[in-house]
Amino acid sequence: MTSMDPRLTPARPDLAAEHLRGTVEAERYVPALGMSVSVGSAPLRREPREDAPLLTEALFGEPVAVYDLAEGWAWVQLETDLYVGWIPEWALGPALEPTHRLSALRSFVFPGPSIKLPPLDVLSMGSRLAVEGEDGMFAVLAGGGYAVARHLSAIDTAEQDFVAVAERFLGTPYLWGGKTSIGLDCSGLVQVALDAAGMDAPRDSDMQEAALGDAVPFTGAAALQRGDLVFWKGHVAIARGDGSLIHANGFHMEVAVEDAAAAIERIAAGGDGVRTVRRLPPILL
User: Fold this and answer.
1) From residue 133, how far is each of 130, 143, 144, 146 by CA, in Å?
2) What is the pLDDT of residue 12?
3) Is the CB of residue 205 less than 8 Å from the CB of residue 186?
4) What is the per-residue pLDDT across 155-213, written as a single tens digit (0 to 9) for each?
5) What pLDDT, on a 0 to 100 scale, did the predictor assign at position 282?
């Protein structure tokens, strides 16, 4: 078998995606079934069980390629960042053609055009929505539900400053594998913020370190520019350009702003020094 990142390769010894035929070895090859996430957020797990580790989360409207169904679980590849894992089958629905995205940190979906009705679901920033009409302050969603129109933006709208987007998550609890305002991890914060600014980003910090921006020499905290991504082994933070960093981290167990020099010193005391600094295009700031 060709060496490929298993996190991004829909292949197992017993089954693989049809497009990998001739590239990887498997007992059988299957075509993708296109679906999308039909709930506010859904866990993508390493194994098909509720207590399996959380790899990442898929957001409402996110397209997925389904390759296997087993006892209420679907083995899928997310089409946004190509991550592979198991997602509950109840969290999937027909493929959507999104027209809008949620630009608010979070927002409710109501069963009718009234804020007094019990919400059907809660959406998170980056959710993809198919809007088919308007009703007062609400956007009418394809498939049912009413979203607050002012919380939506056209699907191709991009935020002007991804650092400012990240700052909106300040105080959000740390959650390994999370990528919503209920909880997220370091690379989830970077991915969600960059997505809002119109830039695709891989899911995990090592992938981001390899793929995003250009490497620049690390010459100390004072030299960091706004939007620089600072990488340690297994961790990433965003420089704010004022001598501080913002990052979701297990020390504070939340998204926190820290003095950059103090954070670098604290992390180094634990045995890890800064490994890489990546500088992103100015258009994202």
Assistant:
1) 9, 12, 11, 10
2) 96
3) yes
4) 999 999 999 999 999 999 999 999 999 999 999 999 999 999 999 999 999 999 999 99
5) 82
| CATH number corresponding to 16-94 | 2.30.30.40
The whole-number pLDDT of residue 3 equals 63
- Give the CA distances from residue 197 to residues 108, 201, 213, 258, in Å, rounded to whole numbers and listed in that order: 22, 11, 14, 23
Q: State both tokens at 172.
A: 């959000």
CB 212 within 8 A of CB 191: no
CATH topology of domain 162-284: endopeptidase fold (from Nostoc punctiforme) (3.90.1720)
162-284 has the same fold as 100-154: no
Residues in the chain, pLDDT under 50: 1-2
Contact 105, 168 (CB under 8 A): yes
Beta bridge partners of 121: 109
**pLDDT, tens digit (0-9, with 9 covering 90-100), for 98-120:** 999 999 999 999 999 999 999 99
CA distance 272 to 84: 29
CATH number of 100-154: 2.30.30.40
pLDDT of residue 2: 42
Instruction: State the Cα angle at 219 between 213 and 223, rounded to 5°.
Output: 70
